[in-house]
């Protein structure tokens, strides 16, 4: 790795640790209340969901409208695993229980992703969107009507083991994993499919293989997000995983920029805080939210970052360039 | 047997409402390749227009229906001009998100104006069963079916025989070529939105009358199912939307009656997945070869 990239990693790790310490201190001193802490956890869950959807929609170029379905699979599988673990192994540490539950959830969601993906990814464009939409609705109806999930009454008694600390670090790991993935050999193959599927196939990229792989990874990470959600909220209602939930995640991805992980992170922060901040407008808040969505799309259809990523180095370079240009102009 | 026939007629009636809404989806998709997610909300708006006119005046049903359809057509044109036209050359997914935004906006606007509780739709069509032998058909069911078929025939004649109808077909075939032929594309797109929205409003009014109530989120499920119907029949194709609508309505009614009312939605969406896997372009769709 050349020095510039190493430097970038060092800066990012320091920034992440600084944010973590800052949030911890603010929570310790009570500046961030429990209510705000909840919002922060929801932001991070949304970051996990949005970055994973970004892998499927932004990097792979496959429009998906059923991401909430994968989230639901992960949430329910993780919840059931944790309940079973709690009953059979008394005194298991929370963190171990969480990790096992999330791992099972990730595997289950990935399997569902493969089952949907193998036939559906043969289709192009809008059809995949419609199939995933249909799948999301089917999952919801199934959860609503079987006994194991508690049906329409919801699933109760889930161990509340998602805390700020573990959600924060899992989010960091997920984003890091996705960043490394999209900048690897596999990631370039995935990007080539988005740019031109036929050309990619012509140069020897196994398009079906990489499409299913990308889709399954996106599904499994959405499952992890769902699991964290289940263990934080401790109660699951199948109707929270409806079509609108999928749309919310998609809106975060498109607004941040398809193919930009940092864009998804920023948009997840903005779009999670916005409805909460608008709470004082009561009934008008969703009206304002949808209005802003339309306006943002009309004036910035590519999203905040487009396909680019935000980096401190790039920010610094641009600052230097501007400063140099100014100095030059003064000298002349 | 009588019961089965009764279910068939109910299925046709539900299906005709889906078909009316599906026509709007398919026409818009055919002409600008946009999945107009706000269409379900236009249908809801149509039902609300009818509700407002019906409670504030004593107009008979045909006039209420006419006003509602005209208003919905205007709403459709305004949506297209303000929200979709600026994005005509943007990435398609941005237009899709805008459509979702418009859909949310209309829902919440209705919520703010009329509040969330369902409003009772006034009796616009007198409810009395008509007996044909031992078969009993409600007037509402019958009116729905007849109105839907009449408007479908009008639409068919409009598209095949009139100049604007021909322009619509030309634009959906090839936009650039139709500009060269002297067709006003913007006007044609506006007409498409107007007709689609008016038919959606008709569907909405009939839906509201059948279930005797209107509420802000009433457009979501029928909208989604009508969209499924459009895809099932072959999106972009007008006969496909009608066929898909009737198929979906029939399957839903039959599965509700004979299998389980909770599982009927899963059956409808599951069927869509199966059909798309075997024939991705829908029942009536033709396979197009991809050009490199």
Automatic annotation (TrEMBL), chain A:
Keywords: Cell membrane, Membrane, Transmembrane, Transmembrane helix
Domain of life per record: Bacteria
Location(s), subcellular: Cell membrane
Pfam hit, one: BPD_transp_2
Keyword Cell membrane included in the entry's annotation: yes
Presence of keyword Transmembrane: yes
UniProt topology in membrane: Multi-pass membrane protein
Segments crossing the lipid bilayer: 9-32, 38-56, 68-89, 95-120, 127-146, 166-182, 212-234, 249-274, 286-305
This protein's name: Branched-chain amino acid ABC transporter permease
Source species of the chain: Fusibacter ferrireducens
Upper classification of the organism: Bacteria, Bacillati, Bacillota, Clostridia, Eubacteriales
Automatic annotation (TrEMBL), chain B:
Localization terms from the record: Cell membrane
Biological source species: Fusibacter ferrireducens
Pfam families, per the entry: BPD_transp_2 (PF02653)
Signal sequence segment: none
Transmembrane segments: 12-32, 39-57, 63-83, 95-114, 134-159, 191-214, 226-251, 263-284
Similarity remark: Belongs to the binding-protein-dependent transport system permease family. LivHM subfamily.
Domain of life per record: Bacteria
Protein name as catalogued: Branched-chain amino acid ABC transporter permease
Alphabetized InterPro entries for the sequence: ABC_transp_permease, BCAA_transport_permease
Keywords assigned by UniProt, alphabetized: Amino-acid transport, Cell inner membrane, Cell membrane, Membrane, Transmembrane, Transmembrane helix, Transport
CDD domains named among the record's database cross-references: TM_PBP1_LivH_like
Membrane topology: Multi-pass membrane protein
PANTHER family for the chain: BRANCHED-CHAIN AMINO ACID TRANSPORT SYSTEM PERMEASE PROTEIN LIVH, HIGH-AFFINITY BRANCHED-CHAIN AMINO ACID TRANSPORT SYSTEM PERMEASE PROTEIN LIVH
